[in-house]
Amino acid sequence: MKLATYNLLKGGARRTHWIRMVEDLGVDLLLVQESYSHREHLPAWLQSEADRRVAWRPVQGRAWGSGVFSTSGNVAPIRVPGYAGWIAAAELSGASWQRDFIDPLVIFSIHAPFKSPSYASQVNRILDKIKKIARGRDVVIGGDFNLTVSHFPAADRPTNRQDLMIQQRLADDFNLINCWQSMNENQPLHQTLRWSGDRSTAYHCDGIFAPRSWRDRLQSCHVLAGDDWNALSDHNPIVAEFASATT
Predict the structure, then answer these.
(1) How far apart are CA 45 and CA 134, in angstroms?
(2) What's the CATH code, domain 2-242?
(3) Pairing of the two strands 2-11 and 29-35
(4) Residue 180 in contact with residue 221, Cβ under 8 Å?
C-alpha cells in the first residue's frame, strides 16, 4: 500500500499532480493540500466513483483546499469546525488494502494556516480537534504542518522546542510514527518546501504519521525531488510504502 501527501501550490495549475501520484506511482491513499477540486484533477477512469472516494473542501474565499482521496473503498467526510479547507478529514472503509491494516480508518489531511500567534499554536489546536474527533480510534495524519516535523540532532539549524514538542505529541497522544523519520533515522532532513525567501534551506515541514502498529510493514518513505517535481509546486511530495500482511 502506498500513502502520499502533497501540497500542490495554489490549486495545482498544471492539473497533473493527482494523475502522477495515482497513475504513475500507484498511490492508494493521497492526502493533498492547496489543491483544486478532485473534479479538476482526477483521471477520467476515476471520475464516475469520485464522490464516494474523496473528501475535499476549499478554504473560504479561495478556489483551493485540502483533500483525502482513496483509489478504492468508501470515504465518508468528517467536518472539522473552524478549519474548513485547511483540514480534510474522513473515515475510510472497505479499501482493497484495508483487510491487512485497519478498517475503518480515520484520516486527516492538514495544512496549518498562519493565524496568530504562531504555526505551532495552530498545529496544537488542530491536534486538539483531531483528538476529539478520533476518540481513541486509529488515525493517519499527514500534510503541510508549516513547522519542522522531523528531527536531525546534528542539523546546522536545530529544531526548536515547540516543534519537538509537537513531534512528541503526535507519538504520545495518537500512537503514531513519523514515516520519513522511521526510514531515515539520523539522516539530514530532506527538503519538502523550497520557500521563495530562501530556496536553499532544507525546510522539512511536510510529513506522514501512521499508526505505530504499521511500523513493521513500513518499507520505504522518501521525498520525491528533481527538476520535474520542482516545476509542479514549491513543495515536494512524500510517499510511504507499506507491505501487506501476506508479503
Answers:
(1) 32
(2) 3.60.10.10
(3) parallel
(4) yes
The Cα 11–Cα 195 span in angstroms is: 17
- Locate the DSSP E strands across the chain: 2-11, 29-35, 54-58, 65-70, 74-78, 87-93, 105-111, 139-144, 176-178, 206-211, 218-223, 238-242
Over the stretch 15-24, which tens digit does the pLDDT of each residue have? 999 999 999 9
The pTM of this model reads 0.95
Q: Are strands 139-144 and 105-111 parallel, antiparallel or unpaired?
A: parallel
- Tell me if residue 111 falls in helix, strand or coil: strand
Distances (CA, A) of 131 to 144, 170, 174: 18, 10, 8
Residue 194 cell numbers, joined: 523550497
Determine contact, residues 206/193, Cβ cutoff 8 Å: yes
Alpha carbon 204 to chain centroid, angstroms: 13
User: Each residue of 105-137: pLDDT tens digit?
Assistant: 999 999 999 877 899 999 999 999 999 999 999
Cell of 142: 499527514
Give the domain ranges of the chain.
2-242
User: Strands 238-242, 2-11: parallel, antiparallel or unpaired by DSSP?
Assistant: antiparallel
